[in-house]
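Below is how a single chain appears once it has passed through the pipeline. First comes the sequence as given, then the structure the pipeline wrote out for it. We keep one example in the README because the format questions we get most often are answered faster by looking than by reading.
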Amino acid sequence: MAKIRDLAAHLESIAPPGYQESYDNAGLIVGNPEEEVTGVLFCLDSTEAVVEEAIEKQCNLIVAHHPIVFRGLKRLTGSSYVERVVIQAIRHGIAIYAIHTNLDNVYHEGVNGRIAGRLGLIDTHILAPKANLKKLSVMAPQSRRESLRAALITAGAERVTAGEQASYFPFEGEVASGGETATVKLEALFPSGRERQILAALQASANGQQLAYELVSIENTNPGVGSGLVGRLPEPMPEKAFLQHLKTKMNTGCIRHTKLLGQPVETVALCGGSGGFLLGNAKAARAQFFVTADYKYHEFFDADGQIVIADIGHYESEQFTIELLYDIISQKFSNFAVHCTEAITNPVHYFH
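Resulting structure:
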């Protein structure tokens, strides 16, 4: 039987915790990682209704996008919905795992990729790549070169270049000495969020020997990790037609937007959740539309006649993350039940 830590490890192989923003609280929030999984319920928000649903469906693990706890709890008296959810989950032996901005920040199987897929965007790439790469240089016996390379690849060593997302590269090797004691210098790039796994793989491959290595942070941006996404429509669309397309594909009844500019829509930038901080990047990408959520009144002025901002709502922008998580886990594990929540956890209601 799979344990909670096994599911966490799989999720973190896709969206390492090191990719989360500093304010975030992704990871296992409630529960014992050694517990065997009997069933999983996927949701955006761990509300009391979701915990009740987990109890009803005999799921002992909730995988949510948003963490139920952002800041430390000083007491558990049930005076807030956060405290009540935590108490209820502990009482019924239900673990809660959150995978938030780390899932937002990955290209492959990430939140924004799922949105782009629904909109039919092609030629997509990260809107604001992060500079979070590190380089490992290690001197190792030549006889262990291939096994060490394989171990580091498994741990997350990769090369990410334009048009070649997350593809592994042949390690550079340089023989430092000859004979039976020949050593080779291996160099590998990896995302900084994988440092713990890389060093663990290095130690395991050393077979008790002390290998000399160096870690260096480098400033190159990683096109596979970062905020937002930009792509283009297969064919340009009139602005009103694109708004209808957006409304239908994202299943939203309300789109707040800035003034239409009277130009065809071909390039679209997007960010699930609160993406206003990426407006400058969207403009730089020459996008005609920027699709996101949580815009305030005065922030709409920042479009400044250069782009159309389309606010589709926070829940609406991320609702298909539930299906994304379902797909990620169901494709890997088959020995327990998995469910998408039936609860609508959107706290915002619209009067039509």
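The chain has eleven helices and 17 strands.

See the next section for the split statistics.
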